[in-house]
Design goal:
Shape of chain B: globular
Distance between the termini of chain B: 37 Å
Largest sheet of chain C: none
Order of helices and strands of chain C: H
Chains: A mainly alpha (234), B mainly alpha (233), C mainly alpha (55)
Distance between the termini of chain C: 68 Å
Helix content of chain C: 40-55%
Oligomer: heterotrimer
Strand content of chain C: under 5%
Number of strands of chain B: 0
Number of helices of chain B: 7
Chain lengths: 234, 233, 55
């Protein structure tokens, strides 16, 4: 690939991502609803465990990850409902943009939208479960969430793009996405736990490496496969 | 004439020889092979558990290759083969988990533990089972073929993880042992069974793929496509 | 008089494993053969349709 075509694709991706983000911004009430849903899930977990603060601290990383995952699913479904309401995805296929460019643009905009969940949910989880907010820990949590959001966005866009045309989308998207995300979620739970409870053995590096590997694999693989999914159309 | 007969009969030949090998291998494993030094008679479970596990991963690798061929060519034959290999892989994984549990109970003392290999195997089972579930939701043939192939390829990410996880993380589940480190009289029944399961799996894939071809051809004949789209499993 | 650390017995687990494997594999093969036979007897379908390639 020459430098010029690479630059062309990059320009396409950026233009499409900007379009997607503008759309998300116009529908910001949806984003607010998704974030509120996440906060609600965090609250429900603390109610489910009860006032035993030690159990809450033990499981805090897992609760935060589940809340983020549930909001992510909701956000993905909302984002693609928009795309299909007026056949917008079909319109995009008429443009001289490659399937990969459309995929990466969508994945970037979804990842950026998901990223908003972190700065809201992480401090709420810290207050509810730990009882105090440490700024250093908060920065680490948000940094980890950046990686996880990338890991969730790529398969999420691929599968939401596929299932959004089906009537049973609400069941199928989690069914396809959750088992695939287990390695990402598992390392995220471990890493969150280390931030929230302390990391005496310095294990953080290995979990971050696993996250990075899966982000890389998913972004590459889903980018290649999206072209075929798009070809099938509706 | 001979070629035609061979084309019709080859799955049966694989099936029959696989069955024969499994009978011989299992009989040897149960009677002729000596009990292992530490695990005693329980080690005989290995001679069926390990072949099933290895062939499950191998069949899923077939599914991955078929899926790529299906995406590449768009031919119905590869779509049927992908579906068949995924289904046989799911059946073998479904067998792999309880045979492993029957070994874990007397040796580790528990039926199940959240060890990396057990976890990744269970995830693999769910991932490939959802591929089959997805198929029954899609009515358009071309789209169903593409989605089956795409989900199979993505699900395959888990397979190397199942294989290598015991080396990457320290785990309760033991690392693959090489035949040199195991008693020769225990290796032979295991080897025979390994090829037995492989041949049987090839037979099952061929059978299932033929069934899927007929089903897809039937969809074309029958005017309402929904009538023929009932899927097994 | 087995030495320390050796698992004694366990034959029931061994038998259960082999029996389960036999049942699962033959049951799956059986359903496949049954389903294949059922499609073959359907008169609306060409018996050689399995070899064709329509795409």
């Amino acid at each position: 690939m020459t430098l010029r075509t690479a630059g062309g694709i990059l320009a396409q991706v950026l233009a499409l991502a900007a379009k997607d983000l503008r759309l998300e911004w116009r529908n910001r009430s949806r984003i607010v609803a998704v974030v509120l849903f996440g906060v609600l899930v965090l609250l429900l977990f603390s109610l489910a465990v009860g006032p035993d603060s030690r159990a809450l601290v033990e499981a805090s990383g897992g609760f935060l990850v589940i809340a983020l995952l549930l909001s992510t699913t909701l956000g993905l479904q909302e984002s693609f409902r928009l795309e299909h309401a007026d056949g917008a995805l079909e319109g995009l296929r008429l443009l001289p943009a490659s399937g990969a460019a459309i995929f990466y643009a969508k994945a970037i905009s979804v990842a950026l939208t998901l990223l908003l969940l972190g700065p809201v949910l992480a401090p709420v989880a810290m207050i509810l479960y730990i009882g105090e907010v440490a700024l250093g820990g908060l920065a680490q949590l948000i940094g980890l969430w950046l990686l996880a959001a990338l890991g969730l966005a790529a398969p999420g866009v691929l599968y939401a793009g596929m299932t959004s045309r089906l009537r049973s989308q609400d069941v199928l998207l989690p069914l396809l996405l959750y088992p695939l995300e287990v390695p990402v979620l598992l390392s995220l739970v471990k890493a969150f736990g280390l931030v929230l409870r302390g990391d005496p053995m310095e294990q953080m590096g290995s979990w971050v490496t696993i996250l990075l590997v899966f982000v890389g694999v998913y972004w590459l693989l889903c980018g290649i496969l999206f072209e075929y999914v798009l070809e099938e159309g509706t | 004439m001979l070629k035609r007969a061979l084309k019709r009969l080859w799955p049966g030949i694989f099936g029959f020889s696989g069955l024969l090998m499994l009978l011989v291998g299992s009989t040897l494993a149960l009677s002729w092979a000596p009990p292992e030094r530490h695990m005693g008679d329980v080690s005989r479970i290995f001679s069926i558990h390990v072949p099933v596990a290895q062939n499950a991963l191998l069949v899923l690798l077939f599914a991955f290759c078929f899926a790529i061929a299906s995406l590449w060519t768009g031919r119905r034959r590869w779509d049927a083969a992908t579906t068949a290999a995924v289904e046989v892989g799911v059946v073998l994984t479904l067998l792999l988990l309880p045979t492993g549990m029957l070994w874990a109970r007397p040796t580790w003392g528990v039926w199940w533990t959240w060890d990396v290999r057990l976890t990744t195997s269970l995830i693999g089972l769910i991932l490939f089972a959802t591929v089959l579930a997805l198929r029954s939701f899609v009515e358009d043939e071309g789209r169903r073929a593409t989605w089956t192939a795409v989900t199979t390829i993505v699900a395959f990410v888990d397979v190397p993880l199942i294989y290598f996880c015991v080396r990457w993380w320290r785990s309760l589940h033991q690392v693959q042992s090489s035949p040199e480190t195991v008693d020769a009289m225990m290796v032979l029944p295991y080897r025979i069974n390994a090829f037995g399961v492989l041949f049987l799996a090839i037979y099952l894939i061929a059978l299932r793929s033929r069934l899927e071809m007929r089903r897809l051809a039937g969809e074309e004949v029958a005017p309402p496509p929904r009538l023929a789209s009932s899927t097994a499993l | 008089m087995a030495p320390q650390g050796v698992i004694v017995g366990g034959w029931s687990y061994v038998i259960a494993t082999y029996a389960l494997s036999a049942v699962v594999l033959s049951a799956y093969a059986g359903t496949l053969l049954l389903r294949l036979r059922r499609t073959r007897h359907d008169p609306s379908r060409d018996p050689s349709a399995g070899e064709g390639d329509a795409t």
